[in-house]
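Q: what sequence does this backbone want?
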């Protein structure tokens, strides 16, 4: 005869000692770390694009100013040559002006190289080949610095950095892995259950007297594994110490960067004020000469 059997088996391992919870916690922390690393990549890309755009605008402005200087030096050379022909000055004056003109012309190729390199860098940052440079040109006059910078405590600036948050998430994951290693050394308790029916006729599988069920519990403990579990727990603790040291290093580096930036903002502002005063003085001198 044929015996037909249908049953459902269920097994569930009790997470009494938190091994599964800590492993899930570790995976979530790693996901957060990856998300912060992605955010840091976007911020770095945006920063590089802005810096390169400013470099392009600066190189273009310097090139235009140098071309104006070269034109002025050429006009001065023509005047000195005319004066030499009239006998009012010596030949050494003309030769000195020619040297000054040659020095000014020698700076033009360097500035042109800087401008082209900035254009190529912008194309690369935009995901294009260097030959596919964009048609837009950045000018210093079109760039405007923020008038008011947000005031914040240095610790708050550090706390917002994606690299610090990523290192913190990795430390969290390493801490959870220690819990996983400890839980693997403790006995595992599982519950099992079966429910079904058996009959020589399919239509009578779940009739009265043909059904059955079973339930049970089991406890599992590794008796000997050559010290692997102990060493895995020690490795997890060593990884936690490493993650803690990397987190501390990241935080210290972030504080250094913030301190350097705040100092640079203050000193660059002083340098900018001095440059503005020098510009006004030069403009007044030029107006007086004219």
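A:
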């Amino acid at each position: 005869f044929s015996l037909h059997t249908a049953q459902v088996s269920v097994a569930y391992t009790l997470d009494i000692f938190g091994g599964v919870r800590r492993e899930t916690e570790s995976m979530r922390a790693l996901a957060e770390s990856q998300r912060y690393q992605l955010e840091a990549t976007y911020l770095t890309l945006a920063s590089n694009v802005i810096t390169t755009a400013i470099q392009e605008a600066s190189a273009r402005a310097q090139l235009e100013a140098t071309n104006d200087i070269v034109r002025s030096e050429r006009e001065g050379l023509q005047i000195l040559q005319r004066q030499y022909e009239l006998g009012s000055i010596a030949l050494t004056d003309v030769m000195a002006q020619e040297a000054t003109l040659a020095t000014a012309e020698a700076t033009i190729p360097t500035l042109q190289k800087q401008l082209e390199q900035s254009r190529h860098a912008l194309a690369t940052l935009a995901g294009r080949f260097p030959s596919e440079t964009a048609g837009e040109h950045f000018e210093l006059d079109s760039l405007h610095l923020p008038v008011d910078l947000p005031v914040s405590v240095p610790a708050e600036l550090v706390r917002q950095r994606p690299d610090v948050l990523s290192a913190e998430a990795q430390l969290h994951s390493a801490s959870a892995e220690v819990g996983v290693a400890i839980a693997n050394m403790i006995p595992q308790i599982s519950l099992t259950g079966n429910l079904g029916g058996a009959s020589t006729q399919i239509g009578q599988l779940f009739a009265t007297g043909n059904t059955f069920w079973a339930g049970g519990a089991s406890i599992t403990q590794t008796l000997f594994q050559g010290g692997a579990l102990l060493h895995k727990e020690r490795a997890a603790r060593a990884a936690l110490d490493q993650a803690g040291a990397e987190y501390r290093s990241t935080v210290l580096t972030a504080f250094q960067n913030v301190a350097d930036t705040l100092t640079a903002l203050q000193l660059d502002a002083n340098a900018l004020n001095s440059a503005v005063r020098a510009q006004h003085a030069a403009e007044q001198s030029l107006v007086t000469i004219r």
